[in-house]
């Protein structure tokens, strides 16, 4: 559903999927610095979630290569699967529902380090900067939204 695509395809794809019930959370558009392609990232529960297919598109590698990296990451104990994987139900173009696994940002970055591609470096730099700014904004919001004992903002 969220593959790599050109800027021209983005508007059409966004318009086609704007009212689907599967769209929960915020979508962030990651564009490569050269502007050649863009990838939609799901922001839910304060982090980014991608499928294996989306990671393959992001790093320009095959889905089987992503699966191989995931096996190595989990086998080495670098990350625990139960804390970084969630199941998601999607509706495909054939109108059937399918369960897919989504992987947290920590897994996406771990795969990116193993891929060792220029695209991986670009995404890691973007993610670090984007998440740093987001964390700063959230800290500022907490600072200004101090609540009294009744839970009302003062």
Key terms:
6 helices, five-stranded antiparallel β-sheet, disordered N terminus, 154 residues, alpha+beta
Structural commentary:
By secondary structure, the chain is α+β, with helices and mostly antiparallel strands. The chain has one domain. It is 48% helix and 21% strand. A 5-stranded antiparallel beta sheet has the order 1-2-3-5-4. α2 packs across α3, α3 packs across α5 and α5 packs antiparallel against α6. The longest helix has 27 residues. The chain is globular and about 45 Å long.
Counting helices, strands and paired strands, the structural category is alpha+beta
Determine the mean pLDDT.
77
Helix percentage: 40-55%
Question: What order do the SSEs take from the amino end to the carboxyl end, as H and E?
Answer: HEEEHHHEEHH
End-to-end span in angstroms? 43 Å
Largest sheet: 5 strands, antiparallel
Taking pLDDT < 50 over at least 5 consecutive residues as the criterion, the unreliable ranges are 1-24
Give the domain tally. Answer: 1
Count of helical segments?
A: 6
